[in-house]
Amino acid sequence: MDFVHLHFHTSYSFLDGYNPIKKAVSRIKELGMSACAITDHNSLAGIPEFQTECINNNIKPILGLEGYYTWDIKECSKTLEERQADALNRAIEAGVLPDNYLETKHKKKDYLETIKDYMYDTKQYHIILLAINQIGWHNLVKLQSEASRLCTFNGRFLCDNTLLRKYSEGIICQSACIGSPMAQLLINNRIEEAEQLILEWKDIFKDRFYLEIQPLNIPEQRLVNLKYMELCKKHNINPVATNDVHWTNYSDYEDHDTLLCIGTNKKKNDTNRMKYSNDFWIKSKEEMISSFNNQLKTINEEYNNQYNNSYMDFYMEALNNTNVIANRIDNNIKLGSDKPLFSDVKVPHNLTPEQYLRLLAWNGLYKYLSNNRELDTRIYEKRLAFELDIIINKGFAPYIIAVYEYTNWAKTHDCPIGPGRGSAAGSLVLFSIGITNNIDPIKYNLLFSRFLTKDRTAPPDIDIDFDYNNRDNVIVHLEEYYGKEKVAHIGTYTTMGVKSGLKDVGRVLDMPFDLVNNQICKKIDEINIDKATPTFKDYDSLKDGNDNEQKQWIEFNKLEKQNKELFRLARAFEGIPRNFGVHASGILVTPCDVNDHVPTRLDKNTGVTITLYTGPQLEEYNFIKYDILGLKTISIIQDTLKLINEELSIENLYDCVDITDSQLYEYISDKNTDAMFQIESNLMKKIIDEIKPTEFNDIVAINAIARPGPISVGMDKEYANVKNGIENIKFPLKGIDNILKETYGTILYQEQLMAISKQVSGFNDGQADSITRRIIAKKKIKLFPMLIRCHIYGKKNCEGPEGWESNDNAPWYDPKGTYGDEIKGALANGYSVEEMKQYFDYIMGFANYCFNKSHAATYSYISIMTAWLKKYYPVQFMSAVLSMSNEDKRKKYMSICEQSMNIKISTPDINLSQKSFTPNQNNILYGISSVKGVGESSLIDIIQNRPYKNLEDALNKIPKKSFNKRVAINLIKSGAFDFEDSNRYNLINKFYDLRKEKDERYDPNSYNEFVCMQFEHDTLGYSITYKSWWDNICLEEKVSNEATLLSTKEIVDKKGRLMAFIELEINNCKINATVYSSKYSRYVSCFDTNLTKKIYVEGQKQNGKKDGETILIINKAKRIAA
Hints:
The protein is of the alpha/beta class. The protein folds into seven domains: about 20-80 and about 120-330, TIM Barrel (Alpha-Beta Barrel), CATH 3.20.20; about 80-120, no CATH class; about 350-495 and about 580-635, glyoxalase-related enzyme like fold (2-Layer Sandwich); about 495-575; about 735-850, no CATH class; about 905-1020, no CATH class; about 1040-1120, CATH 2.40.50.140. The protein contains 45 helices and 24 strands.
């Protein structure tokens, strides 16, 4: 007899399953088991990874789910108030309460106590569902997705008998653990109800229903197992044995417990918390039998050997039935399609997508060439024909037509798109049909092969930046165009990362917050990894990097050695899913109902449908995703244009911006880059100061360089020194000046590496992409020997001589042609081994930092667009910027307007201000919607009924609901009626008089600048009319003042010394201050809030780390006697 695990949680049972799929399947294989199920809580999310891993290890995957059950999803979907009202009616019907109960007043506590026994049972009970075949799999997908839509309670998707009956075909049902509805009924001695439910599930699933027993040796489990034994015999139902697996090995118990603490927000040393017994690992058949034997010993003790033989026969039958179930499962359930599932885009004139794409592309190209007659038509025709052949032969025309459809719709529906994003900008086809804009890929040497090659099998990615404010309209359009049931947002999963894992584990282990967050994690932040979310593997790889990277690894390794258990657990938990997420841009569109293939969930907060598969998983199963991003800068550009002239569009701006405008580059070189896209940070300003850009290519280079990796190896200085004549240009190889001349001999772009591979070593497009770019960009160190040998000696598509793998001075042999055609190698083109080895020695320290030039070029064009608008339309541009900014950035930009741009920021004007910040000559007025308490309906009525002679006129014209007391007083306080009277106390009193309000009137004589500042701070978030004492202090200005000490927070700096963050009040201004360790040790007693509140400080005003934040750096301090 074999045994198969049929109740099996992986790490996709969020923070409850410590059973990573790779590790779990490895253990199943080690135990010699031929099949295994996956039954994660509430989700089918882990199934793609589980199925793949099982198949790769010759194990039959059984696709399932531990779902949640409720008695009636209609009842459970009601609000709490509705359920309480129903309970009250039931109590009245039962005679527990009189019919006139509601006519008298009752305390809520008494009322709830009275009806509690009549409340609907909202417990979420457990149920195991397994797919037998393709029909069963589709039904499981539909059941879970529909449960999510109809009844999500406490984050769990609930089904009831109606839903189970609807989707029962092809599904095996197991009664699950003692958390099932029938088990709970039995435990609570409601035997008849349990039996009735069991018979109902048997009626739904027929012989596919099994009563599940487990060897957990606790009273409740023993009772349920014995009752199931009776009921199986009585009703001819088969039993099945499971172990409710939650972790992989017996020894993983404590680590699972730590993970559970993370999931339940508890600490390990908490005594009152959820805790498993050490029973739920992947047991072998022998361990399962042993566990049931131990359980039987206890039963014999409790029942005087009454069940000895019968129970042993029962659990042996249940164990054997795991094989019966496994044998019922089909071995070839498909999760996707054998061919790409393109959406059904409508093509005019009965053309095929391929014919339509050719028509659009050639028409678009000739229109472009007719407006740019200086271009060589033959070069463009040849490139377009080449690209079209590859796109069409690869079968991707329907995809590109679909992207064209929604980008074209957006342009004609007030939703502008950016010039391009990513590798798509390298395609002349996309440029010709208007998916990308204004960056001619031939003119800027952008490679189509960076986007698509004839050898690449995966669909290309076309990422589009849409107007942030209208991006959702594009998705609504897709739902209307294709049908809502065919469109879904693509899901993601938040996973345990390096820093998040360290913080979570540190909290659970009750380690000092300051140690984990302010020392360990901050030190990790200082390590330069050119990734948004570095992994432990990335940090470990620093050991084999350049000198700078090796130094950083030493620091990381030191931290790990000092905190071994913390790092061990964080490493163990890395990559474990924490929760559902949603992709920022990915949208799935299918030719059929999404739930015909893909499980989804409904997000109750946003109302959108989200796939349980990630983007890469969907692509693997031949689903087509579309990347629809919202970019705030596109909205800023659009809003700026509308403020200049309502008729202008982003297409007009493309025509207006002259990227050869020398004044524009002087403006950028003077570091006036605040609010300009991508080039406003201090790092960018530093690089701009070094490079001194004079042309568009310099901006492209700056955008490629300005990352920690390139800077750490001096790319910025290398480029700047040659450009500015400090050093002579040097090329790392002869004969490649045509490739590197534009970047002054520095290799900045992946496209340059690819071009060198083609020109020097004879790679084709596909090889330059799949060998050069991917191996270097992904830092696949194990493949570096192949990369180097292919470049120097070439590649032969035949069997190599014995020992060729270890011979570094020979070609690479590729008998199956996995990496395309044979490669000549650099030696055949006149290069020496020494030259090529020197080239690789040169690039290996930095090549993985090289950037995608297509992306750098398109985003640099957005930088130039914002620079042009800021220089030539500064008031309109900064108005749009302020409207799109958060509170911190808004403060920063207002300061820049007034201090650097000579633009005055003014309070709102009821007659002149629009919804958002409004340009008014050389002023920017606050928008009416910026006033706290003024909602959309009030805004519309205020604008529609303008102009107003005075406050009384506004009261007469604006409907009272839109100009209620709160709205009116806040508008007065903000300064919106200052044109009538600058004393806002007078205006408030006038409003009270006109409305006959009973509020106490203000004394107009007591109105002063401090009252004005408080009013504006309360309604606008900032003081506009008058500046606070702190706002009038310039950056770098010295400060010497008495201060009130509000709080002190000590931390340990990088050198292990105490420093402090201080909160002070000076002249009615709350100020954040920093005292570095060298000063703190000297003046520590001055910052002890228990010793003193009044101190004297000397220091300097500087920028803080947050946008718009300024801080005081304290250099001296002394206590002031009380």
